[in-house]
Specification:
single chain, 597 residues
Length: 597
């Protein structure tokens, strides 16, 4: 044993000198010398670890006073760190130097210094479960013992310290200094996806000290967020919401990830969109105004860049419904706990909107008796029109902001189309304006008036056919102008009148008898097929949300939807076309694909 120790001491001095030369002279010659000796050096380091693990920290310093310098030189030498298993052996050696129970400030500082070296090594070195086993074996634990004995206890101890810090508040006897928490979050970056580390990750995310600035390492937030988005980690919803509140770029990344996921699939029904949204936790997190505004801004940009893609519009509306449900649940808990009506005023969610308009739109149609829908729509239209026409070019967002607010609650526009089609009274200007505005918010007053005239004429022809005993698809297509040349009518009316036609097929007494033929005639292109699928899916979803009892209509809509979806599966995949425009304003062109509800 003494002979082995003597050899190790002599080798120690030899390698200490080598490291000093390699550090001081970064020439081609010294680099070549280092590369030649890497395998020998790794073997020395392995024997060094075998000796260190038999000693306590005090004995190590007595026998190897400069061991810290040697390990530090290795830690900052990229050639050595890149070689084989050297990083793992180096970690084992550093862990042997840790004082398990520091007795004074000097030992605590020494531990902190070692952690900084470990953090540096781990930042570029990902360990899997097998390597963690080797890591723990280096601390003297057998592989069978590592989970129950070491990692669990270590994580539990750190979690307890973090919680005690939180409870102590300004107590000067806090056990964990802010810089140590920063270091700990950095060391955890490569390990966040390991199940055994989840309690520690959770504790770091939910830790709230009294420091004036964020002390958690930013890359820790980014790494945890990415792991959550890719389903590589399972954390409580409260921890993810804390993450987003403390690091808004992560919330923005989550919202972008969700929108990209939703618009990249051709077969996503609104039911699936709803499931994806719930799974994302974004509607629940949006109860906090800062997070709502972040997610809302992502949707606003997506609508501008995709020129109002129906997929984005539908996702925004499902998100809004989920957010409102979560907000109602949270406000109910607040009322029960404190007697307050609202945790946050509604103004904080929609700061640039008319408070009265927000209150009207927030009323879900299912909470309003059907006989009063027409009146509610009239109030919405009048308030919205007053807001739009009173806005100047310099006002926040102009007409787009009003349209964007209304689009959150798009179910009202669909109801407006159905009410106009089936009402016994003449179409009112208020509802005609609402439909025209929802289909093309960028239009000026003259263009919108032309759209209203066109829609009113189409409605007149459709209502004559509504009670007809004998219906033909040809008559219906002529009534909405689908048989005319596209250049003979305004493009902004096309989608709107098609929606009236599709509503007619579902609601007219004899509509279901010609629905198949009419839709087959319309769905001649992939784009048109997608448009009709979107309308039918949205209609079925809305009826289910409103608990509308229309078994025959629901069956017809679902049958048509299923057939079209089957046909679409055999078509080439489509992607939403991104139209880059000036942020904050809608594009001025009249073209298919404008926001339509």
């Amino acid at each position: 044993m003494a002979h082995k120790s003597a050899n190790l001491f002599s080798e120690y001095e030899f390698w200490m000198q080598k490291l000093s030369v390699w550090d001081q002279a970064s020439t081609l010659k010294t680099q070549q010398d280092a590369c030649v000796h890497l395998s020998q050096f790794q073997e020395f380091l392995r024997r060094m670890h075998e000796a260190l693990k038999e000693m306590d920290s005090e004995t190590i310093i007595e026998n190897f006073p400069t061991i810290g310098q040697l390990l530090a030189k290795i830690s900052w030498n990229p050639l050595i760190l890149a070689y084989d298993e050297t990083p793992k052996i180096l970690i084992w050696c550093l862990c042997c130097l840790m004082n398990k129970e520091p007795q004074n400030s000097g030992e605590t500082k020494y531990n902190s210094w070692i952690r900084s070296l470990l953090s540096h090594i781990l930042s570029g070195f990902r360990m899997d479960m097998k390597e963690v086993g080797l890591f723990c074996h280096g601390l003297g634990y057998a592989p069978a013992d590592y989970c129950p004995r070491l990692l669990k206890n270590m994580v539990s101890s750190l979690v307890s310290e973090l919680r005690e810090n939180h409870l102590n508040g300004f107590n000067t006897q806090k056990r964990m200094a802010p810089e140590r928490i920063t270091s700990l979050s950095r060391v955890c970056i490569p390990l966040v996806t390991l199940p055994d580390f989840e309690p520690l990750v959770n504790a770091l995310l939910t830790y709230h000290g009294h420091e004036p600035q964020e002390i958690i390492w930013p890359e820790f937030f980014e790494t945890v967020n990415e792991a959550f988005l890719l389903k590589k980690i399972h954390l409580p919803a409260a921890a993810i919401i804390c993450l987003w509140l403390r690091h808004l770029p992560s919330c923005e990344r989550a919202a972008l990830h969700l929108v990209e996921k939703l618009i990249s699939s051709d077969t996503s029904t609104l039911q699936r969109v709803e499931c994806c949204l719930k799974d994302s936790l974004l509607p629940q997190a949006a109860c906090h105004p800062a997070l709502f505004r972040t997610v809302d801004e992502v949707f606003r940009c997506a609508l501008l860049e995709t020129d109002g893609a129906p997929e984005v519009v539908a996702a925004l509306q499902v998100f809004t419904r989920g957010f409102l449900d979560a907000l109602e649940k949270e406000n109910k808990q607040v009322r029960q706990a404190s007697g307050q009506e609202l945790k946050f005023p509604l103004k904080t969610y929609f700061p640039y909107a008319s408070p009265f308009l927000v209150m009207v739109l927030l009323q879900h149609p299912k909470d309003v008796p059907q006989r009063l829908w027409y009146r509610s729509l009239t109030h919405i239209s009048e308030t919205l029109r007053e807001t739009v026409e009173s806005q100047t070019d310099g006002s926040h967002g102009g007409a787009f902001e009003s349209w964007f607010l209304f689009t959150h609650f798009g179910g009202w526009a669909d109801i407006a189309a159905e009410q106009l089609l089936m009402s016994d009274t003449e179409p009112t200007e208020a509802l005609l304006w609402l439909l025209a505005f929802s289909s093309s918010p960028h239009d000026g007053s003259q263009q919108r008036t032309q759209t209203m005239v066109e829609v009113k004429a189409v409605l007149g022809r459709l209502r004559k056919l509504f009670r007809s005993v004998t219906l033909s698809g040809q008559d219906l297509l002529e009534a909405v102008g689908e048989n005319r040349e596209p250049s003979s009518r305004m493009l902004t009316c096309q989608q709107l009148t098609r929606r009236l036609l599709l509503s007619f097929l579902l609601w007219a007494p004899g509509g279901h008898t010609i629905a198949q033929d009419v839709i087959t005639s319309l769905a001649q292109t992939e784009e048109m097929t997608r448009e009709i699928i979107g309308f039918l899916d949205q209609t079925v979803y809305r009826w289910e949300q409103l608990c509308i009892e229309a078994p025959r209509l629901g069956m017809v809509a679902k049958e048509l939807l299923t057939e079209l979806q089957t046909r679409a599966k055999h078509s080439p995949a489509h992607h939403v076309t991104v139209v880059r425009g000036k942020a904050g304003s809608p594009r001025p062109q009249d073209r298919p694909g404008k926001p339509v509800q």
